[in-house]
Design a protein that fits this description.
By secondary structure, the chain is an alpha+beta fold. It has two helices and seven strands. The strands form two sheets. A five-stranded antiparallel β-sheet has the order 3-2-1-6-7, with no helix packed on it. GO terms for molecular function: signaling receptor activity.
């Protein structure tokens, strides 16, 4: 037998020596087991909060109705987890990412445009020597 023992005493699974199994109604469609020689592996699915309990394996003593419990059992504490609807939040994150990308690209374009315009609007310091090379100037220079 697999039994619940503390919160709600009930039978969960019975496997006979001829490997005939009985899954009790509370765990119907939520329990799987496999048997290999003297080892049984039990898997519980779709657990609910009220499934929290101490689970123990017990054997029937030959020629009596007494149960013999093997080991201390397994305590299962099932915690309810609040599930979020991710479809709305993922669209929000996607939209926020797009807005931030557009804002960043606009800021970069503005900065580049501003720097580029500043470059052409600045007064340039003349850094050259001016010399008058006209013909009339040269003539006057040669005469003197």
């Amino acid at each position: 037998f697999l039994l619940r023992t503390h919160m709600q005493r009930e039978k969960v699974l019975y496997v006979s020596s001829q490997n005939v199994s009985t899954i009790f109604p509370a765990f119907a469609n939520r329990l799987e087991y496999s048997k290999q020689k003297k080892k049984i592996v039990i898997t519980l699915h779709n657990l609910w909060k009220n499934d929290s309990d101490m689970y123990v394996c017990a054997g029937v003593v030959k020629n009596s109705s007494f149960l013999s419990v093997n080991g201390s059992g397994t305590m299962m504490m099932i915690k309810e987890v609040e599930q979020m609807d991710c479809s709305n939040s993922s669209w929000g994150i996607f939209g926020l990412t797009i807005v931030l990308a557009l804002l960043f690209s606009t800021l970069m374009c503005y900065a580049l445009y501003h720097v580029h315009m500043k470059k052409y609007c600045q007064k340039k310091n003349p850094n050259a020597v001016y010399e008058d090379m006209s013909y009339s100037s040269r003539l006057n220079t040669l005469v003197r």
